Amino acid sequence: MRPTSEDDLAEAILGAHAALSIRGGGTRPIGTAEGELLETGGLSGVTLYEPGALTLVAKAGTPLTEVEAALDAENQRLAFEVPDMRGLLGTRGESTLGGIVAANASGPRRIASGACRDFLLGVRFVDGAGTVVSNGGRVMKNVTGYDLVKLMAGSHGTLGVLTEVSFKVLPKPEAAATLALHGLSDAEAVAAMAAALGSPYDVSGAAHDPAAGRTLLRIEGFTRSVAYRLEQLKALFPGHEITEETEAAAVSALWAAVRDVAPLQGRTGDVWRLSCKPSDAPELAARLRAEALLYDWGGGLVWALLADGTDARARLGAFAGHATRVRGTGGVPAFHPDPAPVAALAEGLRRRFDPRGVLNPGLMA
């Protein structure tokens, strides 16, 4: 099914007598949801863009490329970086805004600006009963009732099928630069990233690639400010081997590789995504005994490549965080099991918004 209007979508969900597998662009699937395929790509188009108000509204099936083109024409951008998972997951198609929101897809800039959900102003969606629900608006302050805007971000289509989303957008920075520290161990790299992120120099990216032996720190903003902060940041690491990159295209390419997990692309095996305390990351990574690693968010996000069928959670044991299998198969759920109280709340929400259990059933359970 590929509805072309919100009414058609509501009718399709209301008339569903069995499970539905919800798909946006199909570029970032995690886990498997059985059921008849329901695609949102027919709900497409930017419905409102006010550059002066830093606000954009679009239908959920709108391709990311269309949105980025509209923003680029006004020298603006989405406030968060959207990872392109096609190279890592071997998928095709184009990312859609609804799919991005459903996955709360957020790249390296999250440590400075926030995640996708933090810039989501409003949503419209159809719940499992075929009811059209609207929440939020076109301004950041909206505190009445349930915060369904935040709830829908990261729900992976289990609570409702998005039809329209609105975002706050931001101007593009004048300049960007990247400082690279070479030859650090994982523990040294995490300590260096923590020092940089704790400095007053507004670091907007902090990543470590063990295979390349480099730790990357990014700063963005006005040209003179970037130049000044780059020098100050270098002074934090006396005696280290340091290189810097200030050419715009090269800086963009460096961080696109981090954003899209390029070091793990083109290799066989299962891919796991570990969210944890940055200070815990080196020890947890050692427990994984991974074939390849990539640290992002200052160590708060660890990407790991493991042999086919490996249960990363069994290797990790108990820890403060969660591990998600983003590629591969096995006898454990793709999503990290919630603690019992959280699982009960999540199940209650699913019963409230999808009482018949037709929307991606079992995907996040």
From TrEMBL:
Domain FAD-binding PCMH-type: residue ranges: 1-172
* Superkingdom, natural source: Bacteria
- Give the matching SUPFAM superfamilies: FAD-binding/transporter-associated domain-like, FAD-linked oxidases, C-terminal domain
Q: Which InterPro entries match?
A: FAD-bd_PCMH, FAD-bd_PCMH-like_sf, FAD-bd_PCMH_sub2, FAD-linked_Oxase-like_C, Oxid_FAD_bind_N
The answer to keyword Flavoprotein applying to this record is: yes
- PROSITE patterns for the chain: FAD_PCMH
Q: What keywords is this UniProt entry annotated with?
A: FAD, Flavoprotein
Record-annotated membrane-spanning stretches: none
What is the protein named? FAD-binding protein
| Organism expressing this protein natively | Alloyangia mangrovi
